[in-house]
Amino acid sequence: MRVTSPVIGVLALQGDVREHLAALAAAGAEARQVRRPEELAAVDGLVIPGGESTTISKLADAFGLFEPLRARVRAGMPTYGSCAGMIMLADKILDPRSGQETVGGIDMIVRRNAFGRQNESFEAAVEVAGVPGGPVDGVFIRAPWVESLGAGARSVAAFEGRTVAVRQGNLLATAFHPELTGDHRVHAMFADMVRAAV
Amino acid sequence: MSTSPSNAQTPETGTARVKRGMAEQLKGGVIMDVVTPEQARIAEDAGAVAVMALERVPADIRKDGGVARMSDPDMIDGIIEAVSIPVMAKSRIGHLVEAQVLQALGVDYIDESEVLTPADEVNHTDKWSFTTPFVCGATNLGEALRRISEGAAMIRSKGEAGTGNVVEAVRHLRQIKGDIARLRGLDNHELYAAAKELRASHELVKEVAELGKLPVVLFSAGGVATPADAALMRQLGAEGVFVGSGIFKSGDPARRAAAIVKATTFFDDPKVVADVSRGLGEAMVGINIDVLPEGERYASRGW
């Protein structure tokens, strides 16, 4: 029985790793970077951060992380992906670049950069089911959306009719970036998912 | 500037959080100069987080001379079409219309760059008035803070573009990091005089002193040619690197580009840097800075 705070890794190949580490620490977790299979083996839960999904995918492939990631996710490790992380947790990408793989786990198809280029990137209030205290500030940066959801997955937030956050078992994905806002409620919800699983 | 949470029911574009947040997504990555859609695809396949669309890489701007301007819109369109990663492009310092054109073309970031010939010797562009975020070069903290006060959402240390020589990149990054470290040692009373010395606002200087870093992402640029160069800049505190001429002026661009991406992520693991440095073919030739006449040093453009 673990009595200390859960250890949550942040996949640190590329992206806004520091912001996720800070948000997890603020949510009471012990947060650390994960770049290698042996580091992945030592965490109770994992965040796949925002970043460039093609870059993260290529680095995960080059450094032998895909199989260990898939094995842990299949075995029920709580995992949260924001933006690029959402893409990495999708079973399917609508418009993948050649050779772009995902870890998968969430029965959904995502469309990359669905909300447009940087000029169309925006902030808006978003209600997330399971996050108490009113809407979160949704920061959408060249953000994906969920094109279609399979039977096992559940939409937990929508914006303008598009699914922008999803839960499936111990997996959570958001198209937006709570880590950029200083509001740690989404990370607190994820830390609770990890605590419940260990 | 406002960085308070938005409670808007309608989406709000171009906020400081959205502009700066975009740069946060690039961290730990490599942004590569490209001059054709084909090069852009090579960069994307190698794992670049973004490409910088240019008509000529800095090494060729140096060689050719003349006035260096914003790239041709058709060429920028072609690169935007070719890749799914963000596309940046350069405007001349103070050339607000080039910046407006780049925004209209839909580029994801504008680099108000000393590599192009300055259009205004007094004023930089008012970057707050754009939806598209800007990155600007700096050689020291004061310069970085002046660009941030004009609205820059990302800073890169300047280095000396098109030389393949990392010495100026190191000098400028060390200068910025050293300036920040010195602020950390000052008390509240001293920060006013420090702001005056840095020719920057007291508010920004105080913010940097408290954070121990810039309020925006800091990359390094200007002279990176090898995986070890990229890892060096990361160890010195750059959050990512721009690579200009170093990739497509080398013997095997695809391989070198992928190697620099890997070394940027595993910058603190010499075994990885060693492995990726094998068999890359010839690096770009490079120029010694001390043989560059003062007038050909890009880093002294902008103020």
TrEMBL record, chain B:
<feature type="binding site">
    <location>
        <begin position="244"/>
        <end position="245"/>
    </location>
    <ligand>
        <name>D-ribose 5-phosphate</name>
    </ligand>
</feature>
<dbReference type="InterPro" id="IPR001852">
    <property type="entry name" value="PdxS/SNZ"/>
</dbReference>
<dbReference type="GO" id="GO:0006520">
    <property type="term" value="P:amino acid metabolic process"/>
</dbReference>
<feature type="binding site">
    <location>
        <position position="33"/>
    </location>
    <ligand>
        <name>D-ribose 5-phosphate</name>
    </ligand>
</feature>
<feature type="active site" description="Schiff-base intermediate with D-ribose 5-phosphate">
    <location>
        <position position="90"/>
    </location>
</feature>
<dbReference type="GO" id="GO:0008615">
    <property type="term" value="P:pyridoxine biosynthetic process"/>
</dbReference>
<protein>
    <recommendedName>
        <fullName>Pyridoxal 5'-phosphate synthase subunit PdxS</fullName>
        <ecNumber>4.3.3.6</ecNumber>
    </recommendedName>
</protein>
<dbReference type="InterPro" id="IPR011060">
    <property type="entry name" value="RibuloseP-bd_barrel"/>
</dbReference>
<keyword id="KW-0704">Schiff base</keyword>
<feature type="binding site">
    <location>
        <position position="174"/>
    </location>
    <ligand>
        <name>D-glyceraldehyde 3-phosphate</name>
    </ligand>
</feature>
<feature type="domain" description="PdxS/SNZ N-terminal">
    <location>
        <begin position="16"/>
        <end position="221"/>
    </location>
</feature>
<keyword id="KW-0456">Lyase</keyword>
<feature type="binding site">
    <location>
        <position position="223"/>
    </location>
    <ligand>
        <name>D-ribose 5-phosphate</name>
    </ligand>
</feature>
<comment type="subunit">
    <text>Homohexamer and homododecamer. In the presence of PdxT, forms a dodecamer of heterodimers.</text>
</comment>
<feature type="binding site">
    <location>
        <position position="162"/>
    </location>
    <ligand>
        <name>D-ribose 5-phosphate</name>
    </ligand>
</feature>
<dbReference type="GO" id="GO:0036381">
    <property type="term" value="F:pyridoxal 5'-phosphate synthase (glutamine hydrolysing) activity"/>
</dbReference>
<comment type="function">
    <text>Catalyzes the formation of pyridoxal 5'-phosphate from ribose 5-phosphate (RBP), glyceraldehyde 3-phosphate (G3P) and ammonia. The ammonia is provided by the PdxT subunit. Can also use ribulose 5-phosphate and dihydroxyacetone phosphate as substrates, resulting from enzyme-catalyzed isomerization of RBP and G3P, respectively.</text>
</comment>
<keyword id="KW-0663">Pyridoxal phosphate</keyword>
<dbReference type="InterPro" id="IPR013785">
    <property type="entry name" value="Aldolase_TIM"/>
</dbReference>
<comment type="similarity">
    <text>Belongs to the PdxS/SNZ family.</text>
</comment>
<dbReference type="InterPro" id="IPR033755">
    <property type="entry name" value="PdxS/SNZ_N"/>
</dbReference>
<dbReference type="GO" id="GO:0042823">
    <property type="term" value="P:pyridoxal phosphate biosynthetic process"/>
</dbReference>
<comment type="pathway">
    <text>Cofactor biosynthesis; pyridoxal 5'-phosphate biosynthesis.</text>
</comment>
<dbReference type="Pfam" id="PF01680">
    <property type="entry name" value="SOR_SNZ"/>
</dbReference>
